[in-house]
Amino acid sequence: MTHAPVSTSLPVLDMSMLDGDEASAHAFRDALRAATHDVGFFYLVGHGIPDDVTTRAFATAEQFFALPAEDKQGVEMLRSPHFRGYTRTGGELTGGQVDWREQIDIGAERDRVDDPGAPAYMRLEGPNLWPTALPGLRAVFADWEQRCTAVARRLMQSWALSLGSPADVFDDTFGDRPSTLIKLVRYPGREDRGQGVGAHNDPGVLTLLMIEPGKGGLQVEHDGAWIEAPAVPGAFVVNIGELMEFATDGYLKATMHRVVSPPPGETRLSIPFFFNPALDSTVPRIELPSELADQARGVTQDPHNVISGTFGDNLLKARLRAHPHVAAVHHPDLLRSSP
Ligand SMILES: O=C(O)CCC(=O)C(=O)O
Ligand SMILES: [Fe+2]
């Protein structure tokens, strides 16, 4: 993988500054706070995940998408009440419009919850669907999950300190049951360069996105315009989700983003990792120092997208909206009760 420079207007943060002296760690935290207050997106280098690990992740994703359709359909999300598994191109909606991408969703591997009295969002917990035709996939992404979780936990501690709170202020929210989710995504090319994935905010806390080297297509909203966020080799694109906006009364910003389809004859792979709290936990509302509280904008109020601080509620809302076919098969009762 080459590390040729890519021109970008998003900030680039170097996480290895946390390994330096206190002044260097402090400078990293200030840059982290500034980036996620202003734009809500940045590139992260110096995160310590070696290039060969990233290369293996993309190669494995490529092998998965190259499997015969029957093998991918064998793990279709339509078979999973927990919204795990494969979604064919056109099977997902964002903003009520069809997304042009195929993907497999791999969440934290857990037993299903059989208690009928449990809140509806506990239906999201359960086993993944693993493709028997590609047995190596599971170990590659178990490793990816561990590595990304370690990076994410360090970032959460840095945010906590940068907001004037103890380093561990978010720890209980994640506990030992974070709701991690990895997606392997492939965007086919098409003439109209239309919706790969439509404009959205991520519903959780933190997203670490790895984009196939050399590929553009991701666009980030800033001051009413879209800015391009092309792949920077070896760097994660990092953004925060609605729960960080909730936790900071809008001081930090969940930013809208979308992916435009690649041109005909090309494809684009991406691997987003979502680091999210336990389903039944509510993120704390951080008490900001007054100079930051003065700049808090309040949590976005959108009647079509009510932000709940309880992660399970916020995720269930997003899952039912994005995967109505899965919802219709497994959760018709929830569709009837939604407004
Ligand atoms: O594929 C990408 O680059 C972004 C995907 C994304 O925003 C998402 O799945 O939430
Ligand atoms: Fe996203």
Summarize the structure in words.
It is a single chain. By secondary structure, the chain is an alpha+beta fold. It has a single domain, classed as B-lactam Antibiotic, Isopenicillin N Synthase, Chain (Jelly Rolls). Helix content is 30%, strand content 20%. It contains ten helices and 14 strands. The protein has helices spanning 22-38, 51-65, 69-73, 137-162, 171-174, 242-247, 290-293, 311-322, 324-330, 332-337, and strands at residues 12-14, 41-45, 85-87, 93-94, 97-98, 102-107, 181-188, 195-200, 206-211, 218-222, 225-228, 236-240, 257-260, 267-275. A hairpin with a 2-residue loop joins strand 4 and strand 5 (97-98). Helix 1 crosses helix 4 (137-162) and helix 2 (51-65) crosses helix 4 (137-162). The radius of gyration is 19 Å and the shape is globular. The site of 2-oxoglutaric acid has 11 residues, from strand 7, strand 9, strand 13 and strand 14. It holds the Pfam family DIOX_N. Residues 177-277 form the Fe2OG dioxygenase domain.
Individual helix count? 10
Summarize the amount of helix as a percent range: 25-40%
The parts where pLDDT drops under 50 for at least 5 residues are none
Q: Would you tell me the structural class of the helices and strands? A: alpha+beta
Which small-molecule species are bound to the chains here? 2-oxoglutaric acid, fe (ii) ion
CATH-assigned homologous superfamily: B-lactam Antibiotic, Isopenicillin N Synthase, Chain
Q: Major sheet: order of its strands? A: 1-2-12-9-14-7-6-3
Q: Classify the beta-strand content into a percent band.
A: 15-25%
Count the E strands: 14
Distance between the termini: 48 Å
**Helix and strand string, N-terminal first?**
EHEHHEEEEHHEEEEEEHEEHHHH
Give the overall average pLDDT: 94
So, CATH architecture?
Sandwich
Organism: Actinomycetospora lemnae
Pathway: Antibiotic biosynthesis
Pfam families: 2OG-FeII_Oxy, DIOX_N
Protein name: 2-oxoglutarate and iron-dependent oxygenase domain-containing protein
